[in-house]
Amino acid sequence: MTARTVLVVGAGPAGAAAALAARARGAAVVLAERAFAGGNAVAHSLLPSKVHLAATADLAAYARWGLGSPPEGAPWAVGAHLRWRREAARTAYEEDLDGAGVDRVSGAVTFEGPGRARIEGPTGGRDLAFDAVVIATGSVQAFPPGTTPDGRVVRIARDLASLDTVPATAAVLGAGPTGVEIATVLAGYGTRVTLVGRAPGLLPGEDPVLADALARTLAGRGVELVLAAGVTACAADGDGVRVDLADGRSLRFETAFVATGRRGATQGLAVDRLGLAPDGTGYLPVDGCARTAAPGVFAAGDVTGEPLVANKAAAQGAVAGARAASGEGEADAEGKDLPTLDPAGVPTAVFSQPEYARVGIAPGSAAAAGLSVWAGDDLASLRRHVLGRETSSDAVRVAVGPAGEVRGAAILGDGAAERIALAAAAIAWHVPAAALANLLPVVPSAGETWTRLRP
Ligand SMILES: Cc1cc2nc3c(=O)[nH]c(=O)nc-3n(C[C@H](O)[C@H](O)[C@H](O)COP(=O)(O)OP(=O)(O)OC[C@H]3O[C@@H](n4cnc5c(N)ncnc54)[C@H](O)[C@@H]3O)c2cc1C
Q1: Is the CB of 37 within 6 Å of ligand 1?
Q2: pLDDT tens digits, residue range 309-336?
Q3: Domains of the chain, with CATH numbers?
Q4: DSSP H helices in 174-309
Q5: Which of these, 387, 442, 449, 444, lies nearest to 423 by C-alpha position?
Q6: 117 vs 146, residue with greater confidence
Q7: Helices and strands in the chain, H and E counts
Q8: How many angstroms does the Cα of residue 421 sit away from the middle of ligand 1?
Q9: For a substitution probing ligand 1, which of 53, 162, 302 has the most ligand atoms within 8 Å of its CB?
Q10: 182, exposed or middle or buried, with CB in 10 Å at 0-12, 13-18, 19+?
């Protein structure tokens, strides 16, 4: 039997996972990437922002013991480390794909019709016929009207990667996960930050109680919060930036970062020639099998819409790749069931300081879903005293089902992104909330917060 040919478009976390999964099931895989193996995740978004956040967390720990303020050249030094780590991560992606026998092609894909694509690369073009395709082209930043990013003073999230000096003042537009992370980085380096959000609170859609606690922590660190505010314009003005608000105020900053939303990266692909139409935000909706509305056309990662996170991208890519290699059935060539993914079960995190993480139903939405909420804090923990904190800095909230089972959880505190895995396991295995409260955590440890979990 001849192997199926699977075309994968985009070599980010979704496309790389799709290519590997399709190869593992015997398909001949062509992976086309127009820019960078590892995708935007490695080149522009996840890796650069997390390197800056890790650095500012270390600087904050240093300052906590009264050991001084951040050195002026910190972002420049961190940037040098980042460029090196980015190349290392790109090489790791390339070696993984090459080792599995994936045919990597440099170039941008445009569809010509069902089963046909053109890849236009730096050394020429190539026409390709395929049996199935996985579209994993990610997302791009969207801008509100009146906002004109110039990469110099009006910047976007990806410009954090090239931050090499500390601006004295900065506006961050957008109080979702990306805006909160950028505000955290800049404040950590010593910038006077104004965080502007359209909703009345931070992190719309997340747990409002913990989001409010995070807002208080940011404000305590000197971040000015301008919430429930519409931005009508944001543009370079003289040697700085002017931000106009809907209430008539006009604010001036040395720089601004725009983080107000994203769109699916489907422009220029000509998916209409596959019989597909992106939704109003450029996304390609898929089912739990990563299937789009067109036969043989799968999609994975950011291009399928929320949640826009790398763990969903990789898991959905693996589902798409396995299915693209196996045809239309529910089992592979060896009769094994093919995987599925429910994006609602994907844990997500905001790498603020402290971190916020959630899995399943946000406890703030529990009442509307007929669930109850249990909450815990670290007020009785010894860890709080070790760290010299006067008030609680750590909190968990859990959405609890009628049989006492964990249905969702949110954590605010150091290491929340790691700690949310316990709640994810509790949901997957139908663990009662009471079992979390009866854990025997090491003292001192962040696990102490679970022992205060009560209805
Ligand atoms: C500032 C920031 C911080 C983030 N931090 C985190 C985090 O800490 N944790 C987390 O889980 N997520 C984070 N994310 C989200 C994460 O980066 C994305 O969810 C992830 O990159 C999605 O992976 P992907 O494979 O779908 O797409 P991408 O990583 O965007 O990769 C898509 C690839 O497709 C290529 N491509 C596009 N069109 C074509 C074409 N026509 N032909 C060929 N190639 C094409 C692009 O060049 C790109 O390399 C962050 C995002 C931002 C903006």
Answers
A1: no
A2: 999 999 999 999 999 999 877 777 777 7
A3: 5-141+263-343 (3.50.50.60), 154-260 (3.50.50.60), 354-452 (3.30.390.30)
A4: 177-189, 208-220
A5: 449
A6: 117
A7: 10, 23
A8: 23
A9: 302
A10: buried
